[in-house]
Amino acid sequence: MSLSASPPEFLPADPDTVVHDTIRWLERAVIGLNLCPFAKGVHTKGQIHYVVSKATDGRELLQELERELEALAEISPEKRDTTLLIAPGCFESFLDFNDFLELVDRLIDELDLGGTLQVASFHPQFQFEGTAVDDVTNCTNRAPYPTLHLLREDSIDQAVQAFPEAETIYERNMQVLQEMGMEGWQALDVGGRCPAGHAAFARDKT
To answer: Distance between CA atoms of 32 and 121, rounded to whole angstroms?
Structure first.
């Protein structure tokens, strides 16, 4: 895996647009399709912290992630339950992004935050192993831009207790997306409008 700078095609992204695109994806796809039953509560309460990374390589992104993990661990859940660290200038390649997650797990261990925080990931070109690129079920983990979702373990436990059939969410999401098809997903218009994200989303339509 390389942590070198991103290719020249990555242009500076407008932070406001990146956040707006991410919120649109959250409202139309994640909440709108009920892909995550736990998302609506923190969204309506304003407990999601959005951070647009200026990183252009993995080293910079890892440094930002460290700061955001420490900040989330120190602040109360009522003020900030979760953080979305959005990286429009990093990791156009999903495979490189996926490899980067090994460093993310290592960082959590080094900060002694295992059991306290965890990181989920989304990418415009996310692809489950064994699926085709255009398999609509991949869209469950596709966001407008490469995104690291910082979560509290306690909040996850509480949400699961409030949703007794949490283990069925994955299967339900697959069924919902299969029924709507790729055309239905594209109709949601949840792609990124900044250069890197928009290009990645455009390839998703081919």
So the answer is: 19
Question: In whole angstroms, what is the distance from residue 125 CA to residue 134 CA?
Answer: 10
> Which token pair is 23?
């919120």
CA gap 23, 18 in Å, rounded: 9
Place of tokens 């695109």: 21
Structure tokens at 9: 């095609």
Matching residue, tokens 């979702």: 149
14 C-beta neighbours (distance < 10 Å), count: 14
Do 66 and 148 contact (CB within 8 A), yes or no?
no
Query: What is the total residue count of the chain?
Result: 206
pTM over 0.70: yes
Q: How far apart are CA 65 and CA 91, in angstroms?
A: 15
Distance CA 66, CA 135 (A): 33
DSSP string, 44-113: HTT-EEEEE---SSHHHHHHHHHHHHHHHHHS-TTT-SEEEEE-TTS--SHHHHHHHHHHHHHHHHHTT-
> What pLDDT digit, counting tens, does each position of 13-43 carry?
799 999 999 999 999 999 999 999 889 999 9
